[in-house]
Protein 1
Amino acid sequence: MALTFTDANFQEEVAKGGAMVIDFWAPWCGPCRMVSPIIDELAEEYGDKVRIGKMNVDENNDVVAQFGVRNIPTILFVKDGEVVDRKVGAQSKESLKESIAKIL
């Protein structure tokens, strides 16, 4: 299962270093609901190698503003605190795996 990132725990998660995938979403967003099960599958597959989680844009304004997220779903691929890749809109599992490969 994917982690839940919030404004409150985000800096702590980034401070752990390594690879992270952050899915910015909202419950009312149709494409977000399509991507959500893929994010959960990737979280299972990559286990300890990548911290994969979701951030509800309606509840977490600080991090959303920090990364300039204007459209959802937006998926950020982060390595050691730096954004390496960004995908906007619904994505295939293969597309997301390609971006994860860049941060491993």
Note: DSSP finds four helices and five strands in the chain.
Protein 2
Amino acid sequence: MFLGVIPLALSALETRWGLAVAFPSALVWAGWALFLLASILGLWSAAAMNVNGDGTPLPAATANRLVTAGPYRVVRNPMAVSGFVQGAAVGLMLSSWMVVVYAVLGSLLWNFAVRPLEEADLEARFGDEFRRYRDTVRCWIPRLGPAPEAPEDVEPTPS
């Protein structure tokens, strides 16, 4: 729905309204490559959630343990990053600036409406373990190299 039907509808409207702009073929191919890489990240994230979290990414069967392995070592929301990149990649693949904007707006909505609820739930379920994780692993931009250890005796600050 979010990566197929809506982008195709937006692309069709963009063409119908005369707003379409042809993207260079290099951007279209970059979209395919980004989509593939983001899909690999999404599958890796789901596998890590299943294996290390004793659950699934689905709210009905959520993880029973805080997952900090696999892609979760370098970014707190690898599944969301995967989805945002896939959305932008579909926009590039379709040569649709409206789909790219749709992906950016979706990421902003997720960041400001969904993420705070998800992180509040994780803090309620995992307490200090999640607060230490939140304070050492970035939300969106992967940290290259080892993350600093959170001090044990200092109260974590909200992000």
Note: Residues 132 and 152 are 8 Å apart (CA to CA).
